[in-house]
Each structure stands twice: as C-alpha cells, then as structure tokens.
Write a structure and sequence with these properties.
- This protein is mostly beta strands and 198 residues long.
- It has one domain.
- It has 1 helix and 12 strands.
- The strands form 4 sheets. A 4-stranded antiparallel beta sheet has the order 1-4-11-8, with no helix packed on it. Strands 5, 9, 10 and 12 form a 4-stranded antiparallel beta sheet that branches. A two-stranded antiparallel ribbon has the order 2-3.
- It is elongated.
Length: 198
C-alpha cells in the first residue's frame, strides 16, 4: 500500500512539473563553476495619452473625466465689447497639455459642432478663439468653424518612435465684433481634441 501511494505521488509530481516555472541548473563535482541561465522579457503595449486641462497635470498619465472651461467675461468692462480689448475677467485660459505616445508620429486635431451660441440664433465664430503654445514641439491645432480641422504634428521626443511633450496653451478671444448679449458657449461651446498615432 505504501508503494502504491509513493508511486501515485511520484506520478502526480511528474505530471505537474511542466506547469511550474523552472530555471536552468547545473551540478558540478570537483573544481569549476556552476552556471544557470535565466531569460527576461518586458512586454510594453502601444500607449497613447492626451491630456488637455486638469488631466494633463498628473505626474502619471491616467484617465480623468474633468472637462475644464475657459471663460472670457466682459461684465466688468462692457465698453470693451467689440474693440479687440481683453476681457475684464479671464478664467482658465492657460491650459496645460500633455501628449505621450510610443509608436511614432502623433497628430492632433480639434473638432467643433458649429459656432458658439447663446441659446438663440446669435453666434460667435470659432475663428475668434485662438491658442498659442509655450512649446513649438506641441502646437495647438486650429479650431475649425465646424467639423474636424486640419491636424498638427507633435514633434517626436527623440529620433525614435517616442513622444512625451508637455506645454501650456494660452487661449485668446479676438473680440473683433459687437455681439448680442448672453453667455456664448451654452450651445456648441466645446472643442474636442483628438490625438492619433499609427
């Protein structure tokens, strides 16, 4: 009976051995060195990250659902409306941006669904809103009147496939025309930025 139990245990161990991770081994008797080798692998997935606003500020790229708002408020200097002068109160117009990619050229586009409106037929065209970047290697794409605009390429961080760029985009409102009162952007006030990579 003991022999049968020992035989079954040995057979179970032999069948399970291929399932276990094992490293090489070498037994040497006498003088000399024993050698055992171990192989390593690092598996890296294709990664693409775009952060515009709050999501760009994190040290480690991660999904963040916060959608920030840039506001140009003329209530404190209404005489400047339509003169090209800056708004009396500007909130959030300096926006941090970060792009990380590991598979070649990253291109950015901006998309809108039409002119900013105040909930009525009054509009402000997107051509009145522009952005400048603190880093030429991470340019802000032009905001189109409607639909998806032309892409702008982010400069690779090295001569390889890697991109890791951070900048601040500063948005401006041209204020070139007198428009009807209201809060514009209550409809069609969102720009959607998209990063694409091969």
């Amino acid at each position: 009976m003991k022999t049968s139990l020992l035989l079954k245990s040995t057979l179970a161990l032999a069948l399970a051995t291929p399932l276990l991770a094992s490293a090489e081994s070498q037994l040497i008797t006498g003088a000399g060195s024993a050698v055992a080798r171990l192989d390593f692998r690092v598996i890296v997935p294709r990664v693409l990250f775009l952060g515009v606003g709050t999501g760009a500020a994190a040290a480690t790229p991660a999904t963040n659902a916060t959608i920030d708002t840039v506001t140009f408020d003329y209530t404190t200097n209404p005489a400047a409306v339509g003169t090209g002068a800056a708004a009396g109160a500007i909130t959030g117009n300096v926006v941090p941006v970060r792009v990380v990619g590991n598979n070649g050229q990253v291109s950015l586009t901006a998309a809108t669904t039409g002119a900013l409106t105040n909930g009525t037929a009054d509009t402000i065209p997107w051509s009145e809103i522009t952005a400048t970047s603190s880093l030429a290697a991470l340019p802000s794409p032009v905001i189109p009147a409607t639909g998806t605009g032309a892409g702008s390429n982010v400069t690779l961080s090295s001569g390889t496939k890697i991109t890791d760029r951070s900048a601040n985009w500063t948005f401006s409102y041209a204020n070139t025309a007198v428009v009807a009162p209201g809060t514009y952007g209550t409809t069609n006030g969102r720009v959607t930025y998209t990063a694409s990579m091969p």
